[in-house]
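User: quick one
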Amino acid sequence: MKILKFQSLALITLGVFFAAFTNVNKLISNKTHIRFYSSTPAENIEANNYKSTATLDIASGDVVFSVPMQSFEFEKALMQKHFNQPDFLDSKQYPTAKFVGKVSDMNLLNLEKEGLHKVKVVGQLTIKGKTNPINVMGDIVVEGKEIRIKSIFEITLADYGIVFVKGKPSTNVAKSVEITVSANFNK
Amino acid sequence: MKTSKKLKWILISIGVIMAGGISVALYFFYMPHRNVHAAKADLQVTAASLIEEFLADQVGSNQKYLSEDGDSKILNITGHIQSIEIDFNRNYVVILGEMELQASVSCTFDSHTNKQVESLQIGQNITVKGVLRSGARYDEDLGLFLPVIIEKTQLFNVNDK
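Assistant: Done. Structure below.
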């Protein structure tokens, strides 16, 4: 009898433990796309990355992206090599970039409603070990069981310790680059 | 006569140097990407040992597997198929792992090799070849274990037929 009581107590404790630590509101996505676009009179450079992991908490509005830097693919092999090297992204020392943020006023948003919701996202972006606050506008599209998020914004490379003073990169890589972030979640 | 002969040689030399310079510049400009499919694997590992290595020593494993120019180690990886997914770029992703491990190895195929995935089934033990892009680790902000990321994957062998 005593053993039975202990067992049920243990089961209840275990149940409470799991309920507390399993957040049912947190959606996970591996269907992601990050595009890097730099435009100068000399040339336009584009790279694409489909290997980020993202989470979206539909209750709190918390958004997190982890981006493996070596998964950025360029049309030209030499550009991809430059991008990874220590004076640019130093992807061997800093293999991932990260965004941690929050959708503003998530509680006012009705994600049961189909269609486009315009939102503001505030957060911290870490690239090459340097963290800066960023403020971006984004779209949340609800379609059936799918929630798609997308945002286009600019970042200044110097904010992340990426500065070219001479040579080809100083004329051919823009000081400010456009980043497009997309992720598809299933409700 | 003598000076014009000299001039001729100078002009030829300049021409040769210029042609050489342009060829080198063009070579670098159009340098092809490393062909992962044709290259030989640098190392043979199991999915479990690769995951455990990264979880035990993140910094040391990054040093071992990642290259500064992004052309990181090409691996032959053996493991059980946990799931098969399709990514944003419409490529197949085969997740290799073992029941007792929290992280997995995510192997993304490409336009040349996607067809190989169609015959695969969950639970099979396979060996694939691909390039490592980043290692497994626990991310506190995501609250998740991130997988080892392998791209340009091709099927090397199905071990249980």
